[in-house]
Input
Amino acid sequence: MAEKILKLGIPAGSLKTATIDLFGKAGFTISGSERSFLPSIDDDQIRLTMLRAQEMSRYVADGVLDAGITGRDWIMENGSSVVEVCELAYSKATSGPARWVLVVPEESKVKKPQDLKDAIIATELVNVTRKYFQDKNIPVKVEFSWGATEVKARLVDAIVELTETGTSIRANNLRIIDTVITSTTRLIANNDAWQDSFKKEKIENIAILLNAAIDAASRVGLKMNIEKNNLDDILKVLPAEKSPTISSLADENYIAIEVIIDTKIERSLVPALKRAGASGIITYPLNKVLH
Output
């Protein structure tokens, strides 16, 4: 009987550390990534390969890998026929989508894409950029850039570059004139692997655990004790969409409340709960949140 193994690709480069951290929060330990492009994972049914996100979808589409993690941008760039299992809202810098943006030097007279007729555009995302201009009926020459594309913004007419925060673009005195595409990280699967019951279930399990870890990153657990007669006041303070767990305490005049809240409201909510009569307030980090 053939050994049941899922061949999974994880991204090298800028997403490497964030991906390994995410797997750790999901319950997997990845080791040896500092020394090898074949790191180990504490799951005997998964075999890892580390590849650049730019080429991941091609290896998944060709069946070299059963599944992998890459950006939607590179799936589009490679024209890969794969199953997009789920979106994974994490990145090296933010939880929001990254943008491929059309950029010119700050001093450029270019104000809109149409001003770039017959221009030279440098980018790593050649096929997507070419289609962007074709869709707008703007003739341009798109050249492949071997990295450090921002430096070339003053050597050619414009560049298309990836940004999450825009910090590097501003630091280089460049100006964004349009967004070409937005992109988020995806878990993808080979079409044939998706038809295999073992591999499909394994991939789905990974998707569930990774997304649970992502959701947990933006939430905390909150516990408190209150007097029963303060319950209505406390419920008014808690976010309306939250349904807390209420438990009895040894002292029949008191109850315990437990709820999961967004991290961003924790610092304003806790003082408000204290003022409303809550005591023994505890907040704690979460490993996974499953809906």
